[in-house]
Amino acid sequence: MKAKFWIIIGVLALLVFYGISVNNNLVTAEENVNAAWAQVENQYQRRADLIPNLVNTVRGAADFESETLQEVIEARSRATSVNIDANDLNNPQAFQQFQEAQGQLSGALSRLLVTVERYPELQANQNFRDLQAQLEGTENRISTERMRFNQAAQEFNTEIRQFPKSMFASILGFEQKEYFQADVGAEQAPEVDFSN
């Protein structure tokens, strides 16, 4: 009778220690996701901070299309108004809404930079070239941080889905994180036409 009691106590103690270990590992993995998310937000903020300077520099060019500038300003406003924090990283709708707003801003900036090609005085403006280089660098940083976020989310999601950790993760309330997806239409190659 005493032996059974100590065996049961031993098994329960092992389960408790294993549960504590699983919890600590999952907390570490979740914090890695949160840190990666903070870097994504940091780069998106950097881009948002550069846009007013870019718009003001372009606005100074004579006859520049105000519609293109307005589109960038509105896209920036939408992108900065859609906020998502680490607690929403497992909310597919909020995550998709954030990604769409950022994608719209990327598209508006791309159209702006294509339109600028028709304005040689802007191409010669050193401030514009500096801002354009900073913006291009920021876009590369955004891409890198999104990739790192997806890696951290994948590691976390794998951890909480592996048996027997999945049982503890469910009990402890850990939920899968969302991933950044390719923008709609990214699977289609852009059409290049050199006929002009």
Give the total of beta strands. 0
Shape: rod-shaped
- Percent helix range: over 70%
**Helix/sheet category:** mainly alpha
Look at the structure and give the mean pLDDT. 83
Distance between the ends = 92 Å
Quick structural gist:
With 196 residues, the protein is an all-alpha fold. The protein has helices spanning 2-59, 66-81, 92-116, 120-123, 126-161, 165-172. The longest helix has 58 residues, at 2-59.
What does this structure look like?
The longest helix is centred in the first third of the chain and has 58 residues, at 2-59. This protein is 75% helix and 0% strand. With 196 residues, it is an all-alpha fold. The protein has helices at residues 2-59, 66-81, 92-116, 120-123, 126-161, 165-172. The protein has 6 helices and no strands. The radius of gyration is 24 Å and the shape is rod-shaped. Helix 1 (2-59) runs antiparallel to helix 5.
Could you outline the blueprint of secondary structure elements for this entry?
Layout: H1 2-59, H2 66-81, H3 92-116, H4 120-123, H5 126-161, H6 165-172
